[in-house]
């Protein structure tokens, strides 16, 4: 492996991004499919084409008779589409169904999940990205075994050639004469370089294929971010990627009303901001940085394309101390710093039932009700309850159309995910599939329909109040063990409140 390739591979390994999230490749969706409440998890293969795993868990309702799943490139089936697959009950698990799905091309897919049972039938669309994110390596024992087998085949082939020349045309039992033996030696000597040449060509083919795969590995659009040191601390994010500038992507569409959700997370997790930059031109965004504690920050910017494809653009930057008062450019911008709040709960014992409470800026408390230990790979519900100063359940107002927004990051930054009560999916991506029509060939047409639909839907209609008043539930499956921080944002009395929680995942 030459240096260029090893460099690329290291970069790919370090930046294990998975589309709209970082290091959290699974898509989790929770919502109503007709009379049933379901949690759908799609585990992408990480290669294209590849086989995705899908599980459908029935959360409420009973008497399911069939669960059909179908991956579609567009929003609705066309004549060429194969029939849907039937998800089978998972042995030993109640109300859990699973199936495998081929994702043949790269890009955005909608997984159509149709459930039918005694109570009726329902359907949900789960948008997923089909992208190549990994390159499988050889482990040493496998490499040694394959090398051994290859050497055996090489020697075997030479032996066969020699034997064929020496005695293949002789009647059984006849000894080959000296001339045949000599010829057999010469042919074997000739066969060695020929076979070696074939091996060499094979290696070349392998390398070309490998390079093509490595080049096709997903990486988010390249961006450049700067903070102007003048008044107001303006952050400018420019998409400098040639594929974006060359219009190889569909335009961006707003996701819960914003073209971009930009998050700043200080390296030591002591500062956090959730901002919505304004688009200055087709590749430049601008926002005012809140008075965050200065330091090195990781930047994550979530965007959704008209195709339904979602991405998280990545960068890291130095945020200087801000002497000026902050004037937010977007009313939904919010930020948090650790000393602003008295308690970041540090209850990390592995007890089966525990609570951690964060007191928020206006005296409201946010309590994480944990009823089980956190285990990587297991899907669960993060449940938070909001109480006012008086101890009564708080009244949650929709914050950008949703009861709550949450960001989960592993302390080392290897995992970043932006989460809602509906899971890790992007609402705009789901809308892009639901509203797509066969005639949508002009860029921007579908996008304007999505914008209109986002304005039209009553925010409260999208509210999922499963756990009762003042409670938000967020479905998630932690991808890897480690130390995590969770920021949960709710809106109470017109004010966006942010609480932070720590968690150890085993
Ligand atoms: Cu959000």
Characterise this structure.
The structure is a single chain. This protein is an alpha+beta fold. The protein contains six helices and 29 strands. The protein has helices at residues 3-14, 140-167, 178-216, 242-245, 427-435, 445-456; strands spanning 17-18, 21-22, 27-33, 36-43, 50-60, 64-72, 85-86, 88-89, 96-103, 107-117, 120-130, 223-227, 234-239, 252-253, 261-266, 271-275, 278-281, 284-288, 295-305, 310-319, 334-337, 354-359, 365-370, 379-387, 405-410, 416-419, 471-477, 482-492, 495-505. The strands form seven sheets. Strands 14, 15, 16, 19, 20 and 21 form a six-stranded antiparallel beta sheet that branches. Strands 3-4-5-9-8 form a five-stranded antiparallel beta sheet, with no helix packed on it. The chain has a four-stranded antiparallel beta sheet with strand order 7-6-10-11, covered by helices on one side. A hairpin with a 4-residue loop joins strand 15 and strand 16 (271-275). The longest helix is centred in the middle third of the chain and has 39 residues, at 178-216. Mean pLDDT is 83; it is low at 1-19, 341-353 and 458-464. Copper (II) ion binds next to loops.
Task: Tell me briefly what this model is.
21% of the residues lie in helices and 38% in strands. By secondary structure, it is α+β, with helices and mostly antiparallel strands.
């Amino acid at each position: 492996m030459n240096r260029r390739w090893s460099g690329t591979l290291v970069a790919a390994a370090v930046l294990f991004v998975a589309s709209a999230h970082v290091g959290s490749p699974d898509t989790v969706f929770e919502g109503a499919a007709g009379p049933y409440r379901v949690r759908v998890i799609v585990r992408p293969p990480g290669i294209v084409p590849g086989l995705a795993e899908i599980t459908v868990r029935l959360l409420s309702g009973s008497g399911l008779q069939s669960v059909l799943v179908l991956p579609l490139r567009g929003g609705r089936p066309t004549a060429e589409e194969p029939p849907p697959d039937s998800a089978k009950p998972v042995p030993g698990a109640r109300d859990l169904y699973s199936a495998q799905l081929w994702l043949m091309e790269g890009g955005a897919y909608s997984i159509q999940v149709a459930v039918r049972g005694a109570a009726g039938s329902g359907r949900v669309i789960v948008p997923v990205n089909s992208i190549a994110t990994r390159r499988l390596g050889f482990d040493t024992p496998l490499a040694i075994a394959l090398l051994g087998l290859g050497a055996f085949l090489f020697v075997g082939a030479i032996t066969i050639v020699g034997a064929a020349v020496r005695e293949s045309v002789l009647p059984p039992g006849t000894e080959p004469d000296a001339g045949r033996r000599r010829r057999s030696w010469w042919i074997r000597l000739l066969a060695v370089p020929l076979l070696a040449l074939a091996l060499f060509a094979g290696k070349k083919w392998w390398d070309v294929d490998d390079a093509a795969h490595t080049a096709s590995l997903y990486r988010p659009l390249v961006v450049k971010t700067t903070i102007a040191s003048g008044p107001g601390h303006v952050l400018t994010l420019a998409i400098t990627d040639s594929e974006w500038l060359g219009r190889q992507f569909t335009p961006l569409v707003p996701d819960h009303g914003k073209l971009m959700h930009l998050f700043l997370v200080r390296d030591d997790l002591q500062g956090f901001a959730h901002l919505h930059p304004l688009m200055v031109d087709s590749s430049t965004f601008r926002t005012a940085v809140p008075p965050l504690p200065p330091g090195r920050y990781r930047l994550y910017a979530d965007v959704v394309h008209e195709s339904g494809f979602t991405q998280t653009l990545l960068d890291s930057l130095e945020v200087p101390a801000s002497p000026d008062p902050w004037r937010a450019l977007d009313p939904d911008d919010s930020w948090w710093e650790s000393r602003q709040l008295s308690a970041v709960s540090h209850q990390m014992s592995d007890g089966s039932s525990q609570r951690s409470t964060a007191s928020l800026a206006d005296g409201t408390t946010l309590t994480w009700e944990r009823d089980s230990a956190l285990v990587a790979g297991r899907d669960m519900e993060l449940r938070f309850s909001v109480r006012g100063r008086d101890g009564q359940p708080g009244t949650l107002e929709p914050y950008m159309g949703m009861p709550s927004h949450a960001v989960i990051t592993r302390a080392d930054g290897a995992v970043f995910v932006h989460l809602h009560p509906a899971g890790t999916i992007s609402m705009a991506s789901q809308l892009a599939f639901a509203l797509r029509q066969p005639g949508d060939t002009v860029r921007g047409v579908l996008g304007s329909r999505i914008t209109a639909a986002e304005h039209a839907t009553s925010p409260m209609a999208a509210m999922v109040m499963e756990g009762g008043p003042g409670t938000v539930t967020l479905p998630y499956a932690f991808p890897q063990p480690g130390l995590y921080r969770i920021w949960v944002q709710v809106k109470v009395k017109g004010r966006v409140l942010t609480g932070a929680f720590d968690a150890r995942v085993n």
